[in-house]
Amino acid sequence: MLARVTTTDNGVDSLADVTSSEDRLRRFLLGLPGVDQVGAEARAATLSTRSIKTTAKAYALDLAIQMIDLTTLEGSDTPGKVRALCAKAKRPDPADPTAPQVAAVCVYPDLVATAKFELRGTGINVASVATAFPSGRSSLAIKVQDTKDAVAAGADEVDMVIDRGAFLSGRYGLVFDEIAAIRDAAGDAHLKVILETGELVTYDNVRRASWLAMLAGADFIKTSTGKISPAATLPVTLVMLEAVRDYHESTGLHIGVKPAGGIRTAKDAIKYLVTVNETAGPDWLDPELFRFGASSLLNDLLMQRTKLATGHYPGPDYFTLD
Amino acid sequence: MSRFEYAPALESRAIVDIKSSYGLFINGAFTEATDGKPFKTISPASEEVLAEVSEAGPADVDKAVRAARRAFDKVWGPMAGRDRAKYLYRIARLIQERARELAVLESLDNGKPIRESRDVDIPLVAAHFFYYAGWADKLEYAGAGDDPQPWGVAGQVIPWNFPLLMLAWKIAPALAAGNTVVLKPAETTPLTALAFAEICQQADLPPGVVNIVTGAGRTGQALVEHPDVNKVAFTGSTAVGRAIAKSVAGTDKAVTLELGGKAANIVFEDAPIDQTIEGIVNGIFFNQGHVCCAGSRLLVQESVYDEVLGRLKRRMESLRVGDPLDKNTDIGAINSAAQLAKIRELSQVGEDEGSERWSPECELPAQGFWFPPTVFTGVSQAHRIAREEIFGPVLSVLTFRTPAEAVEKANNTPFGLSAGIWTEKGSRILWMANQLRAGVVWANTFNRFDPTSPFGGYKESGYGREGGRHGLEAYLAH
């Protein structure tokens, strides 16, 4: 198959060639510049030393809240649980109406309708995982149907997983075709492509998978399902941000990035925002282009926000569980 | 949506207690200078006077050397290695305990960003003392014979770019080997050396084992020419190093010199590009480029020249120049008016010789000594900015076509302190490292230091090694 190319007016034709055959795709991906592990981790560590205070901190905390995909992906999820999460998404801090809303609520496909109903008229999106999440071990037909079900139920955003087995065995064309097929099945829904970087392991793989997903039509590239450890890390996110920056430079297209899993504190979230700011640039400091897949992060952001405004910590019981 | 502007995040100065004036640290006590005039040390970021410091004249230097000799003969020389180690461990721990204070003091007096003094300089200072403390009772395994002996009194003169770190590089191995020392810090950055003198007192180091004499070139000259100094160690410019080599010629003093550099940072077309850009930035803008081993000559393979330059410039636009005590500052102040004048002069020469000069837009503070991060392109081997050490945040970019040409160009300099290689090809790294005439060769990194690793130069970058087992040998007679 291998065809999807999304170029803008000033887009570069050279990338159209890249996806014209599996062989060319492979050569392109293997020809991407390497990532030096020590150097990438050192850069992420240096960015982590930025000290974000006062007005900058207030800006970052509110921005981080607006970037959250508030997530519940458990076998035990129920309509009641999802309704509660949606209430939290709409009004994260009951004590403070100035706290902004989150970007989206992320659930399994069977609970999309519930979330959609609860969030009607709020501007908060419903995101649904799909494609036999989290392992992705199913047939393409089932993955496509899974996606269609989610979109039919009202999902605004689809979070798909790539076939890591295919990727690791070098069948890049298969991974590409699957993403392209899901892209079509998702219709107008925003497509986030989960690379599951904890299973790809090397930064070289992360960079290749990022480019593969972007070439195949991803609107967002996402680190993790949250079901594999390690989930999101700062150096992995750094490498993905470099990829979207470079992709933008060649095509003019803005692709979003979503680290998911393992980001629990406001301090961590701010490190990610600093990395976004100094890697992809200020354009990406926007919920349209950067998201956090998280649940417990929200309360820490709210707590730090209250601390900044009032000078004291209210204590965890002043914030709602969901 | 508004932009993410980092609010000022200043490290507090309250932690340091700078006295209005300092004497000389001789024989375990601060004493008045007898024959020199006091001079002022300022903060290069604001030109504010920080303290008045005594200038040691020849009589003071003589007093210090006598104290060191006495301590060597009576206490430190005869002391068992394991006991010397205890003092060194104690000093190392005190440095860690006072790390934040020392970092702030270093940034104030030197102008370097607090991020670097806090995360690089001071941790390395403590690491050096810990490392050499471990050697003190194992000298017979240092490769200097079965029964290695200290030289006696070491006269040490250090530069202003890493004031406390250079002190550690000098004092830690000297004391571990059983020598006593008289050290002269640079005249623009004496304060952390004087704080170190307090640490020696705090550690109950026997009087005279460490003596600190402040002053300028005259003081340094009196020290290295003192007849009772057995070992001379100097870090600084090649011109002064040459003068020292002349003055000790014909004496039986042992000498190590760590001098200037004009390192080639060599980027191949298969380099890991994003980390390479970081390495170029770290190579030349770390510590405002006041680094003898700075990667001041960037050699880029012509096939990736445009890409490397484009990415480098984009990255330079995100460098934050300003108050050294702001925790988000990447590039601080130039250490002195004299150094700033030298950087300006050589940059002007670069322009006059026809190289193209570029700096990102950045607002420099009105007070103090500042120079923006700068890149010169279109530089050739014949240009002065490709040959002379600028010792500032100024990068000269040259190109090459083949690995052999890269080696030729990298070696085509009177210096030979360090070099960097950027490639994903391991075999090429090994081949290059064997060809390069440089004391330190970094592969896919730059400006990395560790107390276990020897450091030193070829050719006019000096002789002798500091750090590691090799650094210990320089303080042992064998």
UniProtKB/TrEMBL annotation, chain A:
Record-listed E.C. numbers: 4.1.2.4
Keywords: Lyase, Schiff base
Any GO BP annotation: carbohydrate catabolic process
Listed GO MF terms: deoxyribose-phosphate aldolase activity
Flavoprotein keyword on record: no
Catalysed reactions, semicolon-separated: 2-deoxy-D-ribose 5-phosphate = D-glyceraldehyde 3-phosphate + acetaldehyde
Name of the protein in question: Deoxyribose-phosphate aldolase
InterPro entries: Aldolase_TIM (IPR013785), DeoC (IPR011343), DeoC/FbaB/LacD_aldolase (IPR002915)
Involved pathway(s): Carbohydrate degradation; 2-deoxy-D-ribose 1-phosphate degradation; D-glyceraldehyde 3-phosphate and acetaldehyde from 2-deoxy-alpha-D-ribose 1-phosphate: step 2/2
Similarity field: Belongs to the DeoC/FbaB aldolase family. DeoC type 2 subfamily.
NCBIfam families attached to this UniProt entry: deoC
GO CC terms of this entry: cytoplasm
Upper lineage: Bacteria, Bacillati, Actinomycetota, Actinomycetes, Propionibacteriales
From TrEMBL, chain B:
Keyword Magnesium: no
Boundaries of every Aldehyde dehydrogenase domain copy: 31-476
Active site: E258
Gene Ontology MF, one: oxidoreductase activity, acting on the aldehyde or oxo group of donors, NAD or NADP as acceptor
Classification via CDD domains: ALDH_F16
Superkingdom in the source lineage: Bacteria
Annotated coiled-coil segments of the chain: none
PROSITE patterns per record: ALDEHYDE_DEHYDR_GLU
Alphabetical list of SUPFAM superfamilies matching this protein: ALDH-like
Keywords on record: Oxidoreductase
One Pfam family from the record: Aldedh
Family of the protein in this entry: Belongs to the aldehyde dehydrogenase family.
Descriptive protein name: Aldehyde dehydrogenase family protein
Organism: Kribbella antibiotica
Lineage, opening ranks: Bacteria, Bacillati, Actinomycetota, Actinomycetes, Propionibacteriales
